[in-house]
Predict the 3D structure of the following.
Amino acid sequence: MTDAPLRVALQQVEEARASARLPAIKTFFDEATFTATHVVHDPATRHAAIIDSVLDFDQAAGRTSHESSDAVIAYVREQGLAVDWLLETHAHADHLSDAPYLQQELGGTLVIGREIVTVQDVFAKVFNEPVSFARDGSQFDRLMGDGEAFKVGDLSAVALHVPGHTPACLAYVIGDAAFVGDTLFMPDYGSARADFPGGDARTLYRSIRRLMQLPAEARVFLCHDYKAPGRDSYVWETTIGAEHSGNVHVHDGVSEDDFVAMREARDKTLGMPRLILPSIQVNIRAGHLPEPEGNGVSYLKLPLNLL
Ligand SMILES: [Fe+2]
């Protein structure tokens, strides 16, 4: 069944391809966290969106820095782009977002999915956040829900709610390109884990099948790549058609029950991501560090024996 927001996205991809007005996309890959940051722009107007940035973090030293973002900023300036949007596909558990720094340097409206309030509520408990910690998403500039339309220059764009990996996951479809966050990975790698608080393998399967109703030619851009058996280079772009025919976890013919059984069994074998505790604390604050204490220093918490 094609629902209304999906029909909008489908039609948008077809129109973008028919008119050959396609977004230009430049990706910056952070090998330390296997994260792809995408800079998407409308070649006609040079308006742009930046999707899923990375704050460099040396956990042993407790030191943050901006080399990754500085490379993005240099590209944006050299290309003469106007950044309208800083889009987060979800509250990441494996890297810290650097959206506040990009916003300070380049501007743009910071967006995440509406269900971030659920994620904030869950993790505010995990980290015993003070009552002053807002759980209403107000750390972000705008919360988008399923089917919410926006523009990148003259290019049409729409957000699709694709929960499963986390409750708040959004895919952003801009022109003919779908930025799917951690719902799908490269066909030879499969799918993301669904065992974080609020995650659910069955919900993830449904979100993936929903995205797979986009036209086969739709370009798909991922948030992560980890290479794969037999492949020794990082790749972050594929197509809906390639996911249909070749995704090792969820190609055509894999039933919901089979996917759920595979995903749940696999997730039981996975350790926690190296940066989950720092990442979540910062990312539920839209990439801001926790309020400095009396000595002017920000601290991160380490809940013991809880996760
Ligand atoms: Fe993720």
Remarks:
- The chain has eight helices and 14 strands.
- Residues 93 and 276 are 5 Å apart (CA to CA).
- The pocket of fe (ii) ion is lined by residues 90, 92-93, 165, 182 (CB under 6 Å).
